[in-house]
Specification:
14% strand; 39% helix; binds pyridoxal-5'-phosphate; seven-stranded mixed beta sheet; 2 domains; alpha/beta; 360 residues; 12 strands; three-stranded antiparallel beta sheet; Aspartate Aminotransferase, domain 2; Aspartate Aminotransferase, domain 1
Length: 360
């Protein structure tokens, strides 16, 4: 056997040529402002869960459907448990969606630019992404393209607020889209808690009953500060959930994560504070960054997509040299931007000082 060619030949064709998803960089000792994690730690009750973990909790398998977690989530989100599925991060929920709804040769549609993992998951399924540009995305506010309504794709995904822009589409527009598409509409609400706290009525959860083809995703990686634990929730019609259960790994959320999620969900005051602190620090950051003459579309998330011009790449590299990671996308139209996650005050100040130092 010639190793490279013969082993490659044993791999499914769509995977052979697939570019792997590139997660945000992790560099030891660097200040991370590149992956939109929460700048503060999770609720104190989360530490108690870690300290109190019993031997049996680890010896036995976890609840396959994360029933206790779903019960608490049901109370918090006002959605019945039979409409909720837990995932190993919302990325796991997305994997379940792609595997359930899409077969080779299908298309999935999304407004573009957006979270690039969708394309990777499409590639794994031998599914073709259909990107429809957000209106005015290069230099204005990102608007939902009307052509999204008529693609005929079995799955349409809208991240709302969107990544990398942090822009928000109003729920009435998404409800119209849910009525127009012929397939499933997935609204990925990874950052919606920030939008909800700031302007209210940002989530599609309240409209699940009205749209049987609507799937809403939430994550604990952002406003709950549990990115390391990997926990996401999927909300959908019970009929769809029954199919997703067949597709998911039997024990897709580990016991520790289920308990951490319950603790984080229960502390509503702490969650409110995390979101409020983030919004306050975002305002500070916006105020400081405006002095560089930079612009960004209106952010409703915990990050800003700054239009910085030709110096984007060199600033990204210069910041990295100084121990600060921000996100640079080497893609047409985005390569003049830096995506910056909101940090704690000291991180934000260090970022501004480093940018000044770099001549921004
Ligand atoms: C829009 C969007 N969806 C999903 C995720 C992933 O969330 P999780 O950590 O729950 O897998 C991210 C992470 O950055 C994101 O930006």
């Amino acid at each position: 056997m010639t190793v490279d060619a013969d082993l490659d030949a044993l791999v499914r064709r769509p995977i052979r040529g697939l570019a792997p998803y590139a997660p945000g960089e992790q560099v030891a000792q660097c200040t991370k402002m590149n992956t939109n994690e929460c700048a503060w730690g999770p609720a104190p009750a989360v530490q108690t869960v870690l300290a109190d973990l019993t031997e049996d909790a680890l010896r036995l398998y976890p609840q396959p459907m994360a029933d206790d977690l779903r019960q608490v989530a049901s109370e918090v989100f006002k959605v019945s448990p039979d409409r909720i599925l837990a995932g190993n991060g919302s990325d796991d929920c997305l994997t379940i969606l792609f595997r359930t709804h899409l077969q080779p040769g299908d298309q999935f549609a999304c407004p573009w630019p957006t979270y690039s993992l969708y394309d990777t998951l499409a590639g794994l399924q031998d599914v073709e992404p259909l990107h429809i540009d957000y209106t005015d995305w290069r230099d204005g506010e990102w608007g939902l393209p009307t052509a999204l309504a008529t693609t005929g794709a079995p799955v349409t995904i809208v991240a709302n607020p969107n990544n990398p822009s942090a822009t928000l589409i109003a729920t009435n527009e998404l409800r119209r889209l849910a009525n127009q598409v012929t397939g499933i509409l997935v609204v990925d609400e990874a950052y919606v808690d920030f939008a909800d706290a700031e302007i209210g009525n940002a989530s599609m959860l309240a409209f699940l009953d009205d749209h049987p083809n609507l799937v809403v995703l939430r994550t604990f990686s952002k406003s709950y500060s549990l990115a390391g634990a990997r926990l996401g929730l999927m909300f959908a019609h019970p009929r769809l959930i029954q199919h997703y259960v067949k597709v998911k790994d039997s024990y897709n959320v580990n016991v520790l994560t289920q308990l951490l999620g319950i603790a984080a969900l229960r502390d509503r005051d702490y969650h409110r504070d995390l979101v409020a602190n983030t919004l306050a620090e975002r305002a500070f950051l916006e105020d400081q960054l405006a002095a560089f003459g930079w612009t960004w579309p209106t952010s409703r998330g915990n990050f800003l997509l700054c239009r910085v011009g030709e110096q984007a790449r060199s600033l990204y590299l210069g910041l990295k040299d100084r121990g600060i990671l921000v996100r640079f996308f080497d893609k047409p139209g985005l390569d003049s931007c830096l995506r910056i996650s909101v940090g704690q005050r000291a991180d934000n100040q260090a970022l501004i000082a480093a940018l000044r130092d770099l001549g921004a």
